[in-house]
Amino acid sequence: GQQVMQIPQYQHVQEGEDFTTYCNSSTTLSNIQWYKQRPGGHPVFLIQLVKSGEVKKQKRLTFQFGEAKKNSSLHITATQTTDVGTYFCAGRRSGGATNKLIFGTGTLLAVQP
Amino acid sequence: NAGVMQNPRHLVRRRGQEARLRCSPMKGHSHVYWYRQLPEEGLKFMVYLQKENIIDESGMPKERFSAEFPKEGPSILRIQQVVRGDSAAYFCASSPVYSNQPQHFGDGTRLSIL
Question: Which pLDDT band holds residue B94 (cuts at 50, 70, 90)?
Fold first, then answer.
Protein backbone atom coordinates (compact mmCIF):
# COMPACT_ATOMS: atom_id res chain seq x y z
CA GLY A 1 0.00 0.00 0.00
CA GLN A 2 0.87 3.65 -0.17
CA GLN A 3 3.52 4.71 2.34
CA VAL A 4 4.68 8.16 3.37
CA MET A 5 7.94 8.33 5.28
CA GLN A 6 9.46 11.28 7.06
CA ILE A 7 13.02 11.89 8.18
CA PRO A 8 14.34 12.52 10.67
CA GLN A 9 12.07 10.88 13.20
CA TYR A 10 13.32 13.24 15.88
CA GLN A 11 15.39 16.44 15.90
CA HIS A 12 16.72 18.41 18.82
CA VAL A 13 17.97 21.93 18.06
CA GLN A 14 19.10 24.98 19.96
CA GLU A 15 16.79 27.95 19.71
CA GLY A 16 17.80 30.01 16.70
CA GLU A 17 19.05 27.06 14.64
CA ASP A 18 17.33 25.98 11.45
CA PHE A 19 15.31 22.78 11.04
CA THR A 20 14.23 20.72 8.06
CA THR A 21 12.00 17.68 7.78
CA TYR A 22 11.68 15.61 4.61
CA CYS A 23 8.67 13.70 3.39
CA ASN A 24 8.80 10.90 0.80
CA SER A 25 5.90 9.03 -0.73
CA SER A 26 6.02 5.66 -2.44
CA THR A 27 3.43 6.91 -4.95
CA THR A 28 2.76 10.14 -6.83
CA LEU A 29 0.59 12.54 -4.89
CA SER A 30 -2.14 14.85 -6.13
CA ASN A 31 -1.36 17.28 -3.35
CA ILE A 32 0.40 17.38 -0.01
CA GLN A 33 -0.60 18.97 3.25
CA TRP A 34 1.42 19.73 6.36
CA TYR A 35 0.13 19.58 9.91
CA LYS A 36 1.61 20.43 13.30
CA GLN A 37 0.71 18.62 16.49
CA ARG A 38 1.77 20.09 19.81
CA PRO A 39 2.46 17.61 22.64
CA GLY A 40 -0.88 16.42 23.99
CA GLY A 41 -2.75 18.29 21.26
CA HIS A 42 -4.38 17.55 17.95
CA PRO A 43 -3.04 18.06 14.42
CA VAL A 44 -3.49 21.55 13.06
CA PHE A 45 -3.41 22.28 9.35
CA LEU A 46 -0.52 24.45 8.20
CA ILE A 47 -0.53 24.50 4.41
CA GLN A 48 -1.36 22.66 1.19
CA LEU A 49 0.81 22.34 -1.91
CA VAL A 50 -0.68 21.26 -5.21
CA LYS A 51 1.64 22.09 -8.09
CA SER A 52 4.83 20.31 -9.05
CA GLY A 53 7.83 22.27 -7.72
CA GLU A 54 5.63 24.60 -5.70
CA VAL A 55 7.22 26.63 -2.90
CA LYS A 56 5.21 28.45 -0.24
CA LYS A 57 6.31 30.51 2.73
CA GLN A 58 4.65 31.30 6.03
CA LYS A 59 6.86 33.68 8.03
CA ARG A 60 9.82 31.48 9.07
CA LEU A 61 8.39 28.31 7.48
CA THR A 62 9.17 27.31 3.88
CA PHE A 63 7.34 24.42 2.24
CA GLN A 64 8.36 22.72 -1.01
CA PHE A 65 6.68 20.13 -3.22
CA GLY A 66 9.01 18.07 -5.38
CA GLU A 67 9.00 18.13 -9.17
CA ALA A 68 7.84 14.51 -9.33
CA LYS A 69 5.17 15.17 -6.67
CA LYS A 70 6.51 12.34 -4.54
CA ASN A 71 8.40 14.31 -1.95
CA SER A 72 8.15 17.47 0.08
CA SER A 73 10.05 19.38 2.71
CA LEU A 74 9.41 21.83 5.51
CA HIS A 75 12.17 24.19 6.56
CA ILE A 76 12.01 26.39 9.65
CA THR A 77 14.46 29.27 9.89
CA ALA A 78 15.70 30.38 13.31
CA THR A 79 13.58 28.05 15.42
CA GLN A 80 11.76 29.27 18.49
CA THR A 81 10.46 27.34 21.49
CA THR A 82 6.95 27.80 20.12
CA ASP A 83 7.93 25.60 17.15
CA VAL A 84 8.07 22.53 19.40
CA GLY A 85 5.82 19.72 18.24
CA THR A 86 5.47 16.95 15.69
CA TYR A 87 5.25 17.91 12.04
CA PHE A 88 3.32 15.60 9.74
CA CYS A 89 3.05 15.63 5.99
CA ALA A 90 -0.07 14.07 4.52
CA GLY A 91 -0.80 13.27 0.91
CA ARG A 92 -3.58 12.15 -1.36
CA ARG A 93 -2.66 9.55 -3.90
CA SER A 94 -2.82 10.84 -7.47
CA GLY A 95 -5.72 9.13 -9.18
CA GLY A 96 -6.87 7.68 -5.89
CA ALA A 97 -10.42 6.50 -5.58
CA THR A 98 -11.19 8.34 -2.35
CA ASN A 99 -10.48 11.55 -0.56
CA LYS A 100 -8.43 9.97 2.20
CA LEU A 101 -5.13 11.38 3.39
CA ILE A 102 -2.17 9.19 4.19
CA PHE A 103 -0.12 10.74 6.98
CA GLY A 104 3.63 10.57 7.17
CA THR A 105 5.43 9.09 10.13
CA GLY A 106 6.10 12.55 11.56
CA THR A 107 9.14 14.45 12.81
CA LEU A 108 9.26 15.48 16.44
CA LEU A 109 11.04 18.79 16.92
CA ALA A 110 12.48 19.72 20.30
CA VAL A 111 13.86 23.25 20.75
CA GLN A 112 16.18 24.02 23.61
CA PRO A 113 16.11 27.65 24.81
CA ASN B 1 -17.33 26.71 19.40
CA ALA B 2 -17.80 25.77 15.76
CA GLY B 3 -14.89 23.31 15.66
CA VAL B 4 -14.89 19.53 15.49
CA MET B 5 -16.26 18.21 18.76
CA GLN B 6 -15.25 14.85 20.13
CA ASN B 7 -16.45 13.20 23.29
CA PRO B 8 -15.55 11.90 25.65
CA ARG B 9 -12.03 13.36 25.94
CA HIS B 10 -10.95 10.41 28.04
CA LEU B 11 -12.51 6.98 28.21
CA VAL B 12 -11.51 4.08 30.42
CA ARG B 13 -12.81 0.60 29.71
CA ARG B 14 -12.06 -2.86 31.00
CA ARG B 15 -11.12 -5.64 28.62
CA GLY B 16 -14.19 -7.06 26.96
CA GLN B 17 -16.33 -3.94 27.29
CA GLU B 18 -17.54 -1.73 24.47
CA ALA B 19 -16.20 1.73 23.67
CA ARG B 20 -18.24 4.36 21.83
CA LEU B 21 -16.51 7.47 20.56
CA ARG B 22 -18.49 10.40 19.19
CA CYS B 23 -17.59 13.09 16.71
CA SER B 24 -19.60 16.10 15.56
CA PRO B 25 -18.03 17.70 12.47
CA MET B 26 -17.60 21.38 11.93
CA LYS B 27 -20.71 23.17 10.77
CA GLY B 28 -21.10 22.78 7.03
CA HIS B 29 -18.75 19.80 6.82
CA SER B 30 -20.17 16.57 5.48
CA HIS B 31 -17.01 14.43 5.39
CA VAL B 32 -15.71 12.72 8.53
CA TYR B 33 -12.46 10.81 8.99
CA TRP B 34 -11.30 8.70 11.92
CA TYR B 35 -7.63 8.16 12.80
CA ARG B 36 -5.85 6.19 15.49
CA GLN B 37 -2.63 7.39 17.07
CA LEU B 38 -0.51 5.21 19.30
CA PRO B 39 1.89 6.93 21.74
CA GLU B 40 4.87 8.46 19.94
CA GLU B 41 3.53 7.34 16.55
CA GLY B 42 1.81 8.85 13.56
CA LEU B 43 -1.82 8.99 12.56
CA LYS B 44 -3.23 5.84 11.04
CA PHE B 45 -6.23 6.28 8.78
CA MET B 46 -9.17 4.13 9.81
CA VAL B 47 -12.34 5.16 7.98
CA TYR B 48 -13.84 7.92 5.86
CA LEU B 49 -17.57 8.60 5.95
CA GLN B 50 -20.16 10.90 4.51
CA LYS B 51 -23.67 11.15 5.84
CA GLU B 52 -25.16 7.64 5.88
CA ASN B 53 -22.32 6.26 3.75
CA ILE B 54 -18.98 4.61 4.41
CA ILE B 55 -16.70 5.78 1.64
CA ASP B 56 -13.44 4.09 2.57
CA GLU B 57 -12.90 1.70 5.47
CA SER B 58 -9.61 0.27 4.29
CA GLY B 59 -7.92 1.16 7.59
CA MET B 60 -10.48 -0.43 9.88
CA PRO B 61 -9.61 -3.70 11.60
CA LYS B 62 -11.78 -6.48 10.21
CA GLU B 63 -13.30 -7.40 13.56
CA ARG B 64 -14.74 -5.52 16.55
CA PHE B 65 -14.53 -2.05 14.94
CA SER B 66 -17.39 -0.26 13.21
CA ALA B 67 -18.23 3.30 12.29
CA GLU B 68 -21.33 5.18 11.26
CA PHE B 69 -22.37 8.70 10.38
CA PRO B 70 -26.16 8.85 10.52
CA LYS B 71 -28.35 11.42 8.84
CA GLU B 72 -28.92 13.06 12.22
CA GLY B 73 -26.40 13.19 15.03
CA PRO B 74 -22.70 12.63 15.40
CA SER B 75 -20.44 10.08 13.82
CA ILE B 76 -19.79 7.10 16.07
CA LEU B 77 -16.72 4.88 16.22
CA ARG B 78 -17.59 1.69 18.06
CA ILE B 79 -15.13 -0.82 19.43
CA GLN B 80 -16.56 -4.03 20.76
CA GLN B 81 -14.85 -6.36 23.24
CA VAL B 82 -11.93 -4.01 23.72
CA VAL B 83 -8.42 -5.35 24.29
CA ARG B 84 -5.33 -3.72 25.74
CA GLY B 85 -3.98 -3.05 22.25
CA ASP B 86 -6.92 -0.74 21.54
CA SER B 87 -5.47 1.82 23.96
CA ALA B 88 -4.70 4.87 21.84
CA ALA B 89 -5.80 8.37 20.96
CA TYR B 90 -8.61 8.39 18.42
CA PHE B 91 -8.94 11.55 16.38
CA CYS B 92 -11.81 12.61 14.22
CA ALA B 93 -11.43 15.14 11.43
CA SER B 94 -13.90 16.77 9.09
CA SER B 95 -13.76 18.59 5.78
CA PRO B 96 -16.20 20.35 3.47
CA VAL B 97 -17.89 18.78 0.49
CA TYR B 98 -15.14 19.56 -1.98
CA SER B 99 -12.11 17.31 -2.16
CA ASN B 100 -8.57 18.52 -1.53
CA GLN B 101 -9.69 20.63 1.40
CA PRO B 102 -7.78 20.71 4.69
CA GLN B 103 -9.02 18.46 7.44
CA HIS B 104 -9.98 20.01 10.76
CA PHE B 105 -9.28 17.83 13.76
CA GLY B 106 -11.05 17.43 17.07
CA ASP B 107 -9.22 17.21 20.38
CA GLY B 108 -9.36 13.42 20.27
CA THR B 109 -10.53 10.72 22.65
CA ARG B 110 -7.85 9.05 24.77
CA LEU B 111 -8.96 5.46 25.26
CA SER B 112 -7.38 3.45 28.05
CA ILE B 113 -8.05 -0.24 28.51
CA LEU B 114 -7.54 -1.72 31.96
Answer: very high
